[in-house]
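Methods — Computational structure assignment.
A single polypeptide chain was analysed. Its primary sequence is given first, followed by the predicted tertiary structure written as structure tokens.
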Amino acid sequence: MTETNIMDLKQMKPTEVDRGKISIIIPTLNEAENLKTLLPYLIKHSNNQVVEILVADADSEDDTEGICQKHGAIFIPCQRKSRAFQMNKAAHQAEGEILYFLHADSLPPDSFVDDIKESLKLGFGFGCYPFEFDKDHPLLKINAYCTKFDRLWVRGGDQSMFISRQNFLALDGFKEDYLIMEEYEFIKRARKQLSFRIMEKRIRVSARKYEENSYLRVNLANLTAFILFSIGASQKTLRNTYTRMIKHPKA
């Protein structure tokens, strides 16, 4: 981060939060079915505080673009299948003063607008939700329970993330050379300058990865990836190791 970037970081004032509009950013690859549910839900609970929903798409083969047009979301075609690249591209086009990054197979609480604004007014620079799964399984409840703790190893993109647009850009966004775990790197870096909040309510996330694999396999893959990330392994090693260990519901 440059000296100029650091000087540009600032906490939003309560009056700025009140006036500020939210831009929701969703990176996608073949997520049309999830968008059919998610987009109307977000619009219904936006309380006129969401200025736009930006869907940054990595050349989907389904009807993602058509679903976006139907629900008034802005479709942004991306040249790279990279969540970091996709989310950065959308963030640079966003008009809202507040950014909210969200996965297409997640469903935030219906109070997400109030939750985000309350957190910013309390002085937090960025934050996320703990999660719960969309399947009722005792072992999945253990994973979900752990996400309420302030530890990097239980973070991730499924939990979504809010931050002011100014601070996100000042931090140079996500590192686009990251093939996976871009959220972990960003949180680790941003926390050196900004306070972080884990909100009280829970975001509902998909258990499809566990359904395609197994509880043990997914957790072992996640743990291995985090250890490799922590010791500074290359992104190529990280991605290749992870993809060998786990099948993905979405190609």
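Note: The CA atoms of residues 130 and 147 lie 5 Å apart.
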